[in-house]
Amino acid sequence: MKVFITRIIPEAGLKLLREAGITIVEWKEKRQLSRDELIAACQDVDALLSVGSKVDRDFLESCRHLKVIALHSVGYDNVDVFAATELGIPIGNTPGVLSVATADTAFLLMLATSRKAFFLHKSIAKGNWGFFDPTANLGIELRGKTLGIFGLGKIGLEMARCCRRAYDMEILYHNRSNNLEAEAELGAKLVSFDELLVQSDVVSVHTALTPETEGVFNAEAFAKMKKSSIFINTARGGIHNETDLIKALESGIIWGAGLDVTNPEPMKADNPLLDMPNVSVLPHIGSGTEETRDAMSVLAAKNVIAGLKAEKLPYPVNPEVYG
User: Fold this and answer.
1) What's the Cα-to-Cα distance from 271 to each of 76, 243, 249, 259, rounded to whole Å?
2) Is 185 one of the annotated active-site residues of the chain?
3) For the chain, is the Cβ count within 10 Å smaller at the N or the C terminus?
4) pLDDT of 221-250, one tens digit each?
C-alpha cells in the first residue's frame, strides 16, 4: 500500500505509517501542487494525506480508486465531502488536538492588537523610537470587558477560558445550540448574532467556513459592533469580507483587528492591513507548535492506516460513507 503526502509532515506521523508497512511518497518542493500534478501523483497510490490541497469533484472523479483521504487539518472546507461520500471515499480530519494552540493564537492576537504591539515593534525597527509622547500609541485594556465568541466549540471554549481566567471577561456566544459546558463553567450566555455584535468588546471567530458563515462579517456586521471593539479571526479568512474590514478600520467603525487567517491567503505584502497600528496579522499559524503538529500528523496517519485496512476511520468527516 502507498500513500501520497502533499507536503512534508512531522516525523511522528511518518513513523506510524512506516510501522504499518505503508510506502510513503512525499511532495517535498516548497510550492503548491497544481491540480494536474496532484491527480498524476495519486494515480499509483492507494491513499492521499493532504495538507491544504483542494479536493474537489474533478479530483475525486479522477482518483476514485483512493481508499482514503486524510487531511492534516481539522477544517475541511477545501474538500467536496458530498462528492467523496457519493464515490465511497472516506475523508478523515484531525479534530481536538489543535484547540489549545489555536486558542492561544487568538488570545495572542487579542492582546497584541489591544496594545498595538506589532505596529510598535515595526516602528522600532524603522528607527522611530524617539521622543516620548504620553498621548501617542495608546492601547485599550481588556480586564472586565465582554468577549463574544462566534462558534463556541472546542477552540472557542479554550479561548473563553483564557479570557475569563486572565481578564475576568464576560462571555457571550452565538451558536446553533447551547454549549452547556461553557455555561456551567464560565457563565457563558447564548445570544443572537446581532446581540453578540452590539454587546461585545472583542468578537472572536471560531466557526467552520460554510455557505452560511461565508462573508458573514461584512460591512453590515461591522457597523453593529462597538467603535471600541476588536475583531479576531483564527478560523477561516472567508468568514470575513476583507474589503469591508479594511473600510471599517480605516473609518473607525471598529477599533482593531487580529487575523491569523486572511482572504485570500497568502496576503499580499501591500495589503493596507499590514500598516495599520491597531491591526495584528499572522500567517495562519494557529496550530503551529511542535506538540500540536506532531499530534495532527499522528491523527492523519491513523486515518490513513485505518482506511487502507478497510476499517472505519477513527476521525471521519463523512461517517455516512459507511452506510
Assistant:
1) 27, 10, 13, 13
2) no
3) C
4) 999 999 999 999 999 999 999 999 999 999
The segment(s) of the chain belonging to CATH 3.40.50.720 are 2-97+289-322, 99-281
pLDDT score of 181 more than 90: yes
Contact 33, 41 (CB under 8 A): yes
7-57, pLDDT tens digit by residue? 999 999 999 999 999 999 999 999 999 999 999 999 999 999 999 999 999
Backbone angles phi, psi at 149, to 5 degrees: -110, 125
* 282 Cβ neighbours under 8 A, 6+ residues apart: 105, 109, 259, 260
Q: What is the largest CA-CA distance in the chain?
A: 69
240: annotated active-site residue: no
Query: What is the distance in angstroms between the CA of the first residue and the CA of the last residue of the chain?
Result: 25
CATH T-level assignment (fold) for domain 99-281:
Rossmann fold (3.40.50)
The residue assigned the cell 515595526 is 122
Task: Over range 186-214, report the average pLDDT.
Answer: 97
Which candidate, 267, 269, 298, places its Cα nearest to that of 283?
A: 267
- Torsion 233-162-97-187 (CA) sign: negative
The residues, any chain, with a CB within 8 Å of residue 127's CB and separated by 6 or more, are none
CB 316 within 8 A of CB 92: yes
| DSSP calls for 86-112 | HTT--EE---STTHHHHHHHHHHHHHH
Residue 19 annotated as catalytic: no
Q: Which residue in the list 29, 61, 250, 265 is annotated as catalytic?
A: 265
Of 115, 236, 240, 293, which is the active-site residue?
A: 236
Secondary structure letter of residue 267 according to DSSP: P
Catalytic pick among 7, 164, 240, 284: 284
Q: Which three cell numbers stand for residue 278?
A: 491597531
> Is CATH 3.50.50.60 what the domain over 2-97+289-322 is classified as, yes or no?
no
The answer to pTM > 0.70 is yes
Cα separation of 146 and 273, whole Å? 24
Angle at alpha carbon of residue 205, lines to 203 and 211, rounded to 5°: 130
Distance CA 241, CA 282 (A): 17
